[in-house]
Amino acid sequence: MAALGITAGSLGAKAKGRDEINLFAGFMNATYTYANQGRSILSYDLFGLYEPSYDITCGPTVTLDYNHRILSWLGAGVQANWAYLYGNGQYVLGNAPATAFSQHIMAVLPQVKFYIPGPKHFRPYSKVAAGVGFILGDTVVGKPFSFAWDIAPIGFEWGSQMLYATFESAVGNVITGVRFGIGYRF
Length: 186
What we know:
- By secondary structure, the chain is α+β, with helices and mostly antiparallel strands.
- It has a single domain, classed as Beta Barrel (Porin), CATH 2.40.160.
- Helices cover 17% and strands 61% of the residues.
- It has three helices and nine strands.
- An eight-stranded antiparallel β-barrel has the order 1-3-4-5-6-7-8-9.
- Strand 5 and strand 6 (122-137) form a beta hairpin.
- The radius of gyration is 21 Å and the shape is elongated.
């Protein structure tokens, strides 16, 4: 029995520092960016006169992710994203009143994280994630369910091995911009 306890304890000691949780605030939600680009492109032709125009506001996209380091250079995990989008939609032609809408945009994406060798207190990485996105509320902008993807070609962690700050650039249909956050490795 004591041998089993010692073995379990040594396995736990080896696994220390292989799991991490990160909390991010991301800017430039992809649905918000797409809706604003669509409005400006459509306003230049006749077709745009018959399509609704949106006045949209969006706060930061909050991302919570978990990773488990499988190898020294490879990790696997999952990320969950949430953003709140609201605004008004109105037609250019006609006298229809503006319609207000609000929606919660969420996505759950399994991910793979690649750890790039670097200094002890400044660690670069990149990651790729793909999963499902969904909208709760009015589906004025976007689809109720959709394929969601997110690529962070470059990200950085800096700080101690246990508690650190993080920054990453991201592209995809979840975020097209940057994320800032904090992380905890255990």
